[in-house]
Every structure is written in C-alpha cells, then in structure tokens.
Amino acid sequence: MLLALYICFLWLSTSGLWTVQAKEPDVDISIRSHHRDLAPNNVDFAFGLYKHLVASTPGKNIFISPVSISMALALLSLGAHGYTRAQLLQGLGFNLTETSEAKIHQGFWYLQRLLRESGTTLEMTMGNALFLNQSLELLESFSEDTKHYYELDALAIDFQDWARASKQINEYIKNKTQGKIVDLFSELDSPATFILVNYIFFKGTWAHPFDLESTREENFYVNETTLVKVPMMFQSNEIKYFNDSVLSCQLVQLDYMGNGTVFFILPDKGKIDTVITALSRDTIQRWSESLTSGPVDLYIPKVSISEAYDLGGLLEDMGIADLHNSHANFSGITQEAQLKMSKVVHKTMLQFDEKGMKEAAPIEVTQNMAPEPLTLRFNQPFIVMIFDNFTWSSLFLVKIVNPA
Ligand SMILES: *[C@@H]1O[C@H](CO)[C@@H](O)[C@H](O)[C@H]1NC(C)=O
Ligand SMILES: *[C@@H]1O[C@H](CO)[C@@H](O)[C@H](O)[C@H]1NC(C)=O
Ligand SMILES: *[C@@H]1O[C@H](CO)[C@@H](O)[C@H](O)[C@H]1NC(C)=O
Ligand SMILES: *[C@@H]1O[C@H](CO)[C@@H](O)[C@H](O)[C@H]1NC(C)=O
Ligand SMILES: *[C@@H]1O[C@H](CO)[C@@H](O)[C@H](O)[C@H]1NC(C)=O
Ligand SMILES: *[C@@H]1O[C@H](CO)[C@@H](O)[C@H](O)[C@H]1NC(C)=O
Ligand SMILES: *[C@@H]1O[C@H](CO)[C@@H](O)[C@H](O)[C@H]1NC(C)=O
Ligand SMILES: *[C@@H]1O[C@H](CO)[C@@H](O)[C@H](O)[C@H]1NC(C)=O
Distance from the CA of 129 to the center of ligand 1, in angstroms? Predict the structure, then answer.
C-alpha cells in the first residue's frame, strides 16, 4: 500500500471542519484523518486515464491533471440520474456498495479545500465551470449541492450565437485563471449547448532551485530521426535517485515548496511505453522505498506546457459512455430538456523554470572523500508525475516526447 509509507496522520479537530456538513447526519465523524480517503481510488483512476491517453495518442506529449478530472466527473454525477450517475462514479473507481455517494462528495469537498490551501504555496488555480443554454432553468438542488461541495459556477449562456458564447466562455475562464488560460474555444469549434470546463494552472517553486546561470541550449533526442534544441536547466545537489533495472529507467524525486513532490522518470531508449504500462500504486511504493540521496548533476528541460482535451471519447473508452448519447440522463440539472453533454473540456497549463525559494547554493568544492556526482540528463522522452504529498493526489501526469 502506497499510503502505509506516510504514517503522518493528521488528527483534525472537529470544530469547523464538519459543521458545514450538518445536512448529512449519517456521516461517520469518528475518524478524523480523512485527507487521503479518496487517494487509492483517485490514483488508480489517474493511471488508468493516463494509460488510455498514451495508448490513443502514440508519439505525442501528454499532460493531464487526473485529480481535477476526478473532481469534475464527481460533480457532474450530482446532476445525473439512473445509470448515468452510477456509470460516472463507478468509472471513477468507486464501489458504491462500499463507499456511499455522500462520502464521495464529502471526500472531494475536503480534498478541494486542502488543495486550495496548498495552492497558496504552489501557485495553483483549479476549478470547474458549467455552461448551459440560457433557456434552461437549473434545479435548485443541483445548484446548491455543486456550489456546496465543488464551488461550481454554473452559468447560463445564449448558445444561439456561438461566436459570442465562445468569447464569453473564454473571458470567463481567463478571468478565473488570472489571465493564464486564454482562448479555450475558437469560433470555429463546433457549437455546443452544454459544456463542462475543468481547468488547472500550476507553477511550483522548487525547494532547491536550478542554477539560473547554467541554463543552456542543448540537444533533445525526440526519436532516432528527430533532434530539437531545448533550454536545459541544471542543478548539482543531494538528490533522491534510483536506477530501476527491472523497468529500465532512472528517476529522481524533487520537492516543491509546500506539499508538492515531483518524480522525473527517464526510461532507457525505447522503453517509455513499458514504464508507463507498469505505473501503479505498487510501482510508486517500490520507487519511494528505493530512492536514496546522493550527489547528482541533474539536467532537465525548461518547459511550459499547455494542453486541452475533450475527454468525451476517452471516457467512453473507460466505460463512461452515456454523456453524449441519447441514454444520458442529466435530469438532475434541469427538467426542462433532455440534456446531452456537448463537451467535457480539460485544460491544463504547467511551467517548469529554475526558480526556487532559496538562492541556488553555490556548488561546493568537492572534497577528496566525496563521491563523484552522478549525471542524469533528461534529453530524451521522459515522464513527470506531480503529487500533492499531503493528500496523495495526482496533480499531473505528463509524458514529454518533444519539449520544443
Ligand atoms: C432519468 O432518471 C430519473 C430518475 O431515475 C427518471 O425518473 C427519468 O425518467 C430518467 N429520464 C430519462 C430520460 O431516462
Ligand atoms: C463492491 O463491494 C462489494 C462489497 O465489498 C463487493 O461484494 C463487490 O464485488 C464489489 N463490486 C465490484 C464491482 O468490485
Ligand atoms: C437556447 O435558448 C434560446 C433562447 O434563449 C432558444 O431559442 C434555443 O432554442 C435554445 N437552444 C437549445 C438548444 O436549447
Ligand atoms: C474578473 O472579474 C471580476 C468581477 O467581474 C473583476 O472584478 C476582476 O477584475 C476580473 N479579473 C480579471 C483578472 O480580469
Ligand atoms: C520522430 O519525431 C518526429 C517529430 O515528432 C515525427 O515526425 C517522426 O514521425 C518520428 N519518427 C519516428 C520514427 O517515430
Ligand atoms: C542502472 O542499472 C543497470 C543494471 O543494473 C546498469 O546496467 C546501468 O549501467 C545503471 N545505470 C546507471 C546510470 O548507473
Ligand atoms: C500541506 O497541506 C496541508 C493542507 O493543505 C497544510 O495544512 C500544510 O501546511 C501543508 N504543508 C506544507 C509543508 O505546506
Ligand atoms: C511526504 O511528507 C512526509 C511528511 O511530511 C515526508 O516525510 C516525506 O518525505 C514526503 N514524501 C515525499 C515523497 O515527498
């Protein structure tokens, strides 16, 4: 079990935390350490989604925020009925016999709150917005529940005029992300009438920064035939490192300020898909146990990535099939029309740069006794996993094939 490693249980006081949930009297409030309640399900879902995406887009960069997708789908289930509702929650990996719906939503409510607190040190903005045609009236229970558990904004938009509607949505998202996410839709996109947008922007501050002066343009080998130039960051530090001879990869673990922790995984040439197939809670557990600190000269491309996905097709592959089709039952959102989801858009943005909290430590003059630092150069396709170490949320799963 992944969680067994981190036995730092936080005993939360009753005051405040559960008071907002007074309307759910059946909740067991005798256990206070709820901050990783959803972690096993969410992490399994995260790897499942990532693997599906990797398989369906070979040779492409991949960049998703699984925990925010889980959240978006869970909130959507509040407006779904019948089979659609069960499908959404089971698709997220929940066994409804074991975990009640109330528990799931409370779990996400709490998770969101913790992540938002972490966000103050991580520079992270995440959220969901639902847009639907202005002719439709939202059911009050849906507005209330989604606002309460997920702080969802549900907005009425005049979808008759898609050019104007798409601009309005873009403005809204831009405003919510402090200008970081712009132009989500273009006028040329196919018009939609019912859209869920899930967005996340993240920029961490390294606990140990990269050396600003040392960033150099270097070769990155995309594949046998393609080479691109990328700005390569450098730091020389005591770093947690592991050479996994079973999976043919090397990895390091770096920390962000706050609870952010990042695994950079460098598979041997041609092994990236093997490593991705093997990603699981057990693998992370094994890696966490095997990492050892030592002097490492680390080279990592300075990248800023941004991707947008319409998750519809992907979710269908994963068994959540009734969002777009005529079996969709969103009668919990509005009763006036039989809604079908037009788009489930996931927009992510991530920046890696050199900056850290402290000044880069001057590289110490090597003493005779000190071991030779190991050199690790991320100059071929690699994997990045960013976790929130407090809630064990999978903030980002990334596959970088071509950083240029
Ligand atoms: C949706 O589910 C509700 C509750 O189960 C049911 O009353 C309604 O008939 C369903 N609507 C459709 C279109 O299937
Ligand atoms: C859900 O949990 C129940 C009780 O633990 C178990 O009997 C059932 O097989 C589980 N269902 C699935 C689909 O795993
Ligand atoms: C959207 O709302 C407008 C009125 O504001 C209405 O004329 C139109 O038929 C609605 N479209 C859909 C798809 O519901
Ligand atoms: C976002 O909208 C609010 C309210 O409309 C406004 O006060 C604020 O200045 C806007 N922020 C940005 C970054 O546009
Ligand atoms: C190598 O990468 C380039 C650029 O992404 C791509 O066009 C090409 O098809 C790839 N070649 C192979 C053999 O995968
Ligand atoms: C990693 O381990 C493998 C197998 O033990 C070995 O062949 C390889 O040289 C090691 N790589 C590094 C960089 O130490
Ligand atoms: C980790 O997250 C928790 C919950 O948001 C917060 O209370 C704690 O201060 C964070 N730890 C650090 C080191 O930032
Ligand atoms: C997670 O946090 C615990 C306690 O704060 C710390 O001991 C551990 O090293 C951290 N793990 C990772 C992977 O950062």
Answer: 24
Q: Is the CB of 112 under 6 A from ligand 7?
A: no
> Positive or negative CA dihedral for 101, 102, 107, 108?
positive
Q: Which residues contact 229 (CB under 8 A, 6 or more apart)?
A: 217, 218, 219, 220, 404
| Ligand 6 binding pocket, CB closer than 6 Å | 243, 245, 250
Contact 23, 149 (CB under 8 A): no
What residues flank ligand 4, with Cβ below 6 Å?
A: 175, 178-179
pLDDT tens digit string along 260-304?
A: 899 999 999 999 999 999 999 999 999 999 999 999 999 999 988
Residues flanking ligand 8, CB < 6 Å: 6, 8, 255, 261, 389
Whether ligand 2 lies within 6 angstroms of the CB of 97 is answered as yes
Euclidean distance between CA atoms 205 and 209, whole angstroms:
8
Residues in the chain: 404
DSSP state of 372: P
DSSP 287-325: HHHH-EEEEEEEEEE--EEEEEEE-HHHHHHTT--TTSS
**pTM for the full predicted model:** 0.88
Residue with the nearest Cα to atom 3 of ligand 1?
A: 81
Angle at 22 between CA 21 and CA 26, to 5 degrees: 90
The DSSP 8-state label assigned to residue 32 in this structure reads -
User: For the segment 91-127, what is each residue's pLDDT rounded down to a tens digit?
Assistant: 999 999 999 999 999 999 999 888 888 766 777 888 8
Instruction: Provide DSSP, 35-56.
Output: TTTTHHHHHHHHHHHHHHHHHH
Six token digits for residue 109: 């409510």
* Strand ordering across the sheet containing 194-203: 153-157, 124-133, 194-203, 343-351, 304-310
- The residue with greater pLDDT, 40 or 366, is 40
CA distances (Å), 274 to each of 55, 101, 270, 376, 382, in order?
11, 36, 8, 20, 12
Q: Give nearest CA residue, ligand 8 atom 2.
A: 389
| Residues 376, 378, 380, 381, CA torsion sign | positive
